[in-house]
# Entry
Amino acid sequence: RTIGVLIPDITNPLFPPIIRGIEDALAEAGYTAILGNTDNVARRERDAVATMRARQVDGLILATARRNDPIVRDCIAERLPVVLVNRSADLDGVAAVVTDDALGTALAVRHLAGLGHRRIAHIAGPQSISTGEVRRRSFLDTMAECGLDPDPALVAETKAFSEDEGLRAASELLESGAAFTAIVAANDLIALGAYEALGKSGLECPADMSVTGFNDMPFVDRLTPPLTTVRIPQYDLGREAARRLLDLIANPDIAVRSETLSPEL
# Structure
């Protein structure tokens, strides 16, 4: 009656509410979670899963999955119940509980377009991760739908959903000399890095540049200025992922189903 839970970055404020949702749902069913933090290192992910399996966990909840993830593939092949949370994989036969990332990004782009912005940049997350890829694709699609030019020169890619990477990518965009008046950041930590880059460049938000984030992590309402962001149901993501896994454990032959929860600006 133990479940392994793997997260990529325990310092990211997105994950504690997800973990709380997981633990609450498991506790109601008499299960306990074992938590592993991987720091987005593939070797640590493999080692953590091996350790959890050695302890005979009944299933896994993974917030670490990449789009083409061998760990997920192995779980499917060996019939170990697994549910992905906040990410999906380019594989059949795996359940996932995610947010509608395309809709969330579209809400941010339309908001900025409604404010009159025409040259909008995007700081994308890693393209090996579903959240990075889907949000980038939605940014480009929504820009075109709004009649705006999705200039490839205004799309920067990060190596991680981190403040440091947001600072690096935003600084590169600003130093490129390309003209833009707003940034759609792939998550709130990247947006924080963009805030820092603007400050170092002598620019003010929102007087000189507008910025949006994604996730609505704790305390973004206390930034200066408060961050416009896309709120996702973090606790509900974790709770629903745990419930979905418990269903798979109780009924191994039921059809694998994924669920998409709605965000709001």
Summary: The two ends are 38 Å apart (CA to CA). The CA atoms of residues 74 and 80 lie 8 Å apart. DSSP finds eight helices and ten strands in the chain. The helical segments are 15-28, 42-54, 70-77, 101-114, 130-145, 163-175, 188-200, 234-250.
